[in-house]
Task: inverse folding
């Protein structure tokens, strides 16, 4: 039988996802000793785990080369795509927020604001809903630099603990959206491997419900 292939977001969500798999009783030896390997096996459960960057998790699911994936709602909101979003896994909790220099009133003045972000689609939708025209500048690294360097009036970014904002003299002006890790499934895989995938979803949901 073909293994069910699960794409897992490397980095922040990885540890919590492996912890979740362990709660399900999966043998995560390979995941703990992965070295530089990118495709790992959970032998007892006939599952293959693919380690990928967040946006690539969505790409692999959409192209059907992975059956299921664990990815942040931030990535889903930014990149969209056609797949089933089946479960809120309850970890990786953070939020999208509009932030900028402490003590400044972002909404005063008539001049068009400049917003720096790694998430231009989320940002555009947020300001469109307000009926507000903004100039969006895409930044790849630490977006917090943009207001400090006076490139932008504000940023739309992920805030988890708030430490990065605080330590750089910035503050949240407004929350944009809540974020957490989600389980996503390829639409065709769900039909082709319905029993196997529904079993895994059921196991994951029973563990998440207890948490
Ligand atoms: C994110 C985000 C902030 C930081 C917020 O970056 O872009 O910079 O985390 O976290 P905090 O509220 O706990 O300080 P991340 O560390 O994920 O790195 P990235 O630049 O690769 O996205």
Result:
């Amino acid at each position: 039988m073909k293994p069910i292939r699960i794409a897992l977001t490397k980095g922040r969500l990885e540890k919590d996802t492996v912890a979740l798999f362990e709660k399900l009783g999966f043998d995560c030896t390979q995941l703990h000793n992965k070295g530089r390997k990118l495709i790992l096996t959970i032998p007892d459960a006939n599952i293959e785990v693919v380690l990928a960057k967040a946006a690539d998790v969505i790409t692999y699911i959409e192209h059907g080369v992975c059956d299921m994936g664990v990815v942040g709602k931030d990535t889903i909101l930014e990149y969209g795509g056609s797949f089933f979003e089946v479960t809120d896994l309850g970890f990786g909790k953070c939020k999208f927020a509009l932030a900028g220099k402490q003590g400044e009133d972002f909404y005063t003045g008539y001049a068009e604001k400049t917003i720096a972000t790694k998430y231009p689609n989320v940002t555009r939708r947020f300001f469109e809903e307000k009926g507000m025209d903004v100039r969006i500048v895409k930044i790849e690294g630490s977006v917090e630099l943009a207001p400090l360097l006076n490139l932008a009036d504000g940023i739309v970014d992920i805030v988890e603990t708030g430490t990065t904002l605080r330590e750089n003299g910035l503050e949240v002006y407004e929350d944009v959206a809540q974020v957490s890790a989600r389980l996503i499934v390829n639409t065709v895989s769900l039909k082709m491997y319905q029993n196997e995938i529904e079993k895994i979803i059921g196991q994951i949901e029973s563990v998440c419900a207890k948490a």
User: Anything to note?
Assistant: The pocket of PRP is lined by residues 12, 141-144, 157-164 (CB under 6 Å). Residues 194-210 form the longest helix (17 residues).
